[in-house]
Every structure is written in structure tokens, then in C-alpha cells.
User: Fold this.
Amino acid sequence: MKLLLLSGAFHLEKSLEKSLEVIKIERKFFPDNEQYIRIPYKQDDEYIIVQSMFGNPDIKIVETIFAIRTLKDLGTKKVYGFFPYLAYTRQDKRYKEGEAISQLIVLEMLNKAGLNYLITLDAHFHQGIPTIGDLKIKNITCAPYFYKFFEYANSREDFVIIGPDDDAYHLALKLSEKLNLKAGYIEKVRKGEREVETFGISIDVKNKNVILIDDMISTGGTIMKAYELLKKEGAGDIFVVATHGLFVEDALKKLRNLGIKEIITTNSIPNETAVFDVSEILFEEIKWLKN
Ligand code: R5P
Assistant:
């Protein structure tokens, strides 16, 4: 079994080297912007492709499809994908007539290219894990792994864990199990790509320090609204933890200006808030796959 690193995972190279032999994709763009890839291939029956699809997801998806297909052409029997950040998962159904269900289309393309097994982290599979041909999909949550950053809050009466919407409640519950704290969620309605509205909170937060947990932070709108409501309801310090820190435009700056005590993410997307290395999860998966 070997690891093939694609461009969205080059930042993980150092830590991944500790597990299996790592091969890096060679990649360039032609003058007309078409993408070229080459795999410095070493024969093996099994490869794990590592790719995180942030920044320019379209380009990263094409790179991934080319890589999967090429591995298969070169004789690899089984291709696993470890995609810490899997793009396009949020469009998981047809909200308006005529919309493309991008999540399913992307997964189908990966499967058709020859992907056998996909491992991802806190992907937005809010309609359930989709069935795509013979593709096995494993969606791992990082929530329990975050406990080590909040161990000091374990069993403390003055701390609670809140999901900024009901979809994030399961994350709050998973972290709360580890920290022995109460969990709740905020009622949120999305009004547009950049606009959300919040209503009530499912538990009392008055004089409580709050750990807000979500799968991803994109524009930061969800966290900003949650912060405002929590403060209005009398919360104390607010800590934010999320698996994927996309922080589009100046989202991180805006969040920092609010006065959030601490913002923590994984390095599924490299950024200055990344403290949890997702390679740890891949190491566990490799052990499991080898048995
Ligand atoms: C929504 O369902 C997700 O779990 C996140 O809450 C959302 O994608 C965050 O986006 P933004 O930071 O743009 O509000």
C-alpha cells in the first residue's frame, strides 16, 4: 500500500511520511489552463490518494479524477481516497427545481474514475451517506478528537457545548460525551449563501462559557450570528472549534474581531487556526485497512 499525495494535501507530506511510502503527483498547467498530471508510479496493488479539495475545488476534482483513473490504468487494483475536505457536499439535494445535486455528481465521477473506497471527515452528508455504485464511503467525525484542546473544561458546571444549528448538534453531543458537559444547539435558518438567521437556544447559556462546534466555517456568518445570540443570552467566554476552516475572504479576521476567546480547526485546510493534524486519523485508518 502506498500514498499518493495530490496538490491539496502537500501540506500533510511531513506527517504522512511516517506511515507509508509517499509519492507526490507532478502537476502543471498548459498555457490554455488545461491541467497535466503525471504519477511517478511504483507498482503496488493498493494506493491511498490523499487530497483536500479547498481553494479551487473544480481544479482539484479534475486532478483527483485524472489521478484515480491513471492509477487504475497503471495496474493498481484498489484505490482508496482520503479526502479530509470533500468539496461540493453542501448541495446535497435539489432545493429549487432544476438544481444540480452536486454532491452526488462529484461522488459518481470519482467512482466512475475507479475509486473504490472514500474516507472523509465531517462531510456534509445531512441527507445520509449516499449510495453510489460500489463506492464505499466512510465519513469520520473529528468532534471526539477535539476533546484534548478542552480538557481543562472537563465536567465543569460553567461550560456547555453548542452546535450553531441543529445539523451540528450531533457534533456537540459527541464532544460533550468526551468532556462530560451539557450540549445544545441554536435554531438557525439560512436565508442565502451569506445570510443566516438565528432564533432560540435549546439549553440555558446564561453565565456559561460556550464551546461552539461546527463542521465547517466558510463565510463565518453562522458563527457570527451564533456568537451574537449567545452573548445576548448572557454567555461568558466563547470558544469555536470546527473541522474545516475555509475562512473565505476575511472571515477569520471578522471572527477574531468579535472577541472569540479561541478558534480551533484541523489542518484539512491549512490555516493559522489548524491545531489538529488529520494525518492522525489516516494513520488509524491505515492500521484498520491493513488488518
Ligand atoms: C451548514 O450547514 C454548515 O454546517 C455550516 O454551518 C456552514 O456551512 C457554515 O457556513 P458559513 O460560515 O458561511 O456560515
User: Anything to note?
Assistant: The first helix runs from residue 13 to 16.
